[in-house]
Specification:
The protein has about 400 residues and is of the alpha+beta class. It folds into two domains: about 10-35 and about 280-399, Thrombin, subunit H, CATH 2.40.10.10; about 40-270, Tetratricopeptide repeat domain (Serine Threonine Protein Phosphatase 5, Tetratricopeptide repeat, Alpha Horseshoe), CATH 1.25.40. Helix content is about 55%, strand content about 15%. The protein contains 15 helices and nine strands. The chain has helices at about 10, 40-60, 75-95, 100-120, 120-140, 140-160, 160-175, 180-200, 200-220, 220-240, 245-260, 265, 270-275, 285-290, 390-399, and strands at about 30, 280, 295-300, 325-330, 330-335, 340, 355-360, 360-375, 380-390. Strands 1, 2, 3, 4, 5, 6, 7, 8 and 9 form a nine-stranded mixed beta sheet that branches. It is globular. Residues about 1-50 have low confidence and may be disordered.
């Protein structure tokens, strides 16, 4: 079942919730809502940036890790093994995903880089330069990220590694996308595109098409943005046979139309016909409270999920808040001041996430998560708020 999450902005602007103040004493910490609905574009942009850097890591993971790129004598080999150990420690620290661990990872990579340079291992040098630049990007240090990636780009060209060169070009372009120099981003991304086409690297190519679309969208070039997205969609359909990629790209196409003010065209994208629809129903609060205990489920992008340091979540490398979380056995426990109180586990970022019930063997959204009550002293969750769906009925009636 595909679930379409409503924007935070929807939940933020109903029932006067921004100013809601119940009579109970616990401190209420409501999520900070985005100022404008087109923030969906920002989310897409961040996904693309993460995709590029993850793709670079996939490339490196495919390279031999324990064999030096040039012959080494016994003493040099010992030094090389020290460098391998340092890089592995850096990668382990990077997986922990916090700013402090990122800084520690950079330190390990820089030590490994010195060894690679001392041994004149150019292939290893370019790979460690990339790893270091990627982590600098993770802590929003764009200057150092670009410095390291540009050095990696120069060496990859010297070594005639076109696919790695293209991946670095894409990474640099993705960083520029998030600056005031989008045209610079376009230059790098188009270079990457040409190389990926020449080498038939379709997974990398669809990421590049979507990154190019993001830049064009930022520049107001709607036609060019849609052209790039449709190229990506064609590859997902005909070459990669990737339904998830198709759905994501169709969503992006709809977002472009929406931002351009062509909302009807956005709605008419064939996403629902292919992947199904998720409607809503206004169910009486008394029914939800009395008859649906432990029978609801919740989907959302909580800011504390997933934690890649925990066993079983190591592969979730996109970062916390970038993967949808599912929880079943939820309940609506009561109603206060026209708001529903529920016990689904949520955190900042999950606002707008649907609380869903099965009605006549079909899933329907019966409430939208909107905020949480925490213990002011301990920070522990006490209860969560949700918005009733009758507000959508009223909006539709106004039309």
């Amino acid at each position: 079942m595909g679930v379409v999450l409503l924007s935070d902005a929807v939940g933020a602007n109903v029932s006067g919730l921004q100013n809601y103040s119940p009579e109970i004493s616990p401190e209420i910490l409501l999520d900070k809502y985005r100022d404008k609905f087109p923030s969906l574009e920002t989310r897409d942009k961040q996904v693309l940036l993460r995709s590029y850097h993850n793709q670079q890591k996939v490339y490196l993971a495919q390279q031999p890790a324990s064999t030096p790129s040039i012959p080494l004598n016994t003493e040099q080999r010992k030094l090389y093994e020290q460098g391998v150990k340092l890089v592995k420690e850096g990668q382990d620290l990077e997986k922990k995903g916090t700013r402090e661990f990122y800084k520690q990872a950079i330190n390990k990579y820089q030590q490994g880089l010195k060894i690679a340079q001392e041994l004149k291992l150019r292939q290893e040098e370019v790979e460690i330069l990339f790893l270091t630049g990627s982590v600098y990007y993770s802590i929003s240090d764009k200057k150092n990220a670009l410095d390291y990636l540009n050095k990696a780009l120069e060496i990859s060209r010297e070594l005639n590694k076109p696919v790695f060169e293209a991946t670095i070009l894409g990474g640099i372009g993705a960083i520029y996308t998030n600056t005031d120099e989008p045209r610079e981003a376009l230059s790098y991304l188009q270079q990457a595109q040409s190389i990926f086409i020449a080498h038939q690297k379709f997974h990398e190519l669809v990421i590049t098409y979507k990154a190019i679309a993001t830049v064009h969208n930022k520049l107001g070039n709607t036609k060019e943005a849609l052209d790039s997205l449709n190229k990506a969609l064609k590859i997902y359909r005909e070459t990669l046979k990737d339904s998830s990629g198709q759905a994501d790209t169709l969503y992006s196409i709809g977002s472009v139309y929406s931002i351009a003010g062509e909302t009807q065209t956005a709605i008419n994208q064939p996403l629902a016909r292919k992947y199904g629809r998720l409607g809503w129903k206004s169910v009486p609060s008394s029914t939800l409270i009395k008859q649906k205990q432990g029978k609801l489920f919740f989907v959302g992008y909580s800011g504390d999920y997933p934690d890649p340091t925990k066993e079983g979540y190591e592969s979730y490398t996109a970062g916390k808040g970038w993967t949808a979380d599912y929880q079943d056995n939820c309940s609506i426990v009561s109603e206060q001041s026209n708001l529903l109180l529920h016990d689904c586990a949520t955190a900042g970022g999950a606002s707008g996430g649907p609380i869903i019930d099965w009605i006549d063997n079909w899933p329907y959204v019966v409430a939208l998560n909107n905020g949480e009550v925490k213990n002011r002293r301990t920070g522990q969750d006490i209860i969560n708020f949700a918005v009733k769906m009758d507000f959508l009925d009223k909006l539709v009636a106004r039309k």
